[in-house]
Amino acid sequence: MNEINPIIIELLRKRGITDEADIQEYLSEKPQKTYNPFLLADMEAGVDLILSKIKDGEQICIYGDYDADGITAVSLLYQVLSELTEKLSYYIPSRFDEGYGLNTDAIQTIKKSGAGLIITVDCGSVSYEEVEYAKDIGMEMIVTDHHSITNRRADCILINPKRPDCPYPFKHLAGVGVAFKLAQALQQKSGLPKSVLTRVLDLVALGTIGDVVPLTNENRTMVKFGIRVVQSAMRPGLKRLLQCISLAPEKVSSENIAFAVVPHLNAAGRMKNAGVAAELLLSQNQEEIEHCVQTLIDSNRTRKTVQEQTYRQCIEVLEDERRKKVDTLKDADKSAENAILLYLPSAHEGITGIVAGKIREKYGRPTLIVTPSGESDTILKGTGRSVEKVNLYELLKNCEDLFLKFGGHAGACGFLMEKENLPVLRQRIEGKLTEMFEEDNTLFDLEQHIDMELSLSMITEEFAELIGLLEPFGSENPKPLFRVANTKASFVSRMGTEQQHARFTAEDGSGRIQCVLFHKAAEYMDLLLSGRRFNAVGTVEMQYWNGNRRIQMILSNIEK
Question: Buried (b) or exposed (e) across 49-67, using 16+ Cβ within 10 A?
Answer without folding.
Answer: bbeebbeeebbbbbbbbbb
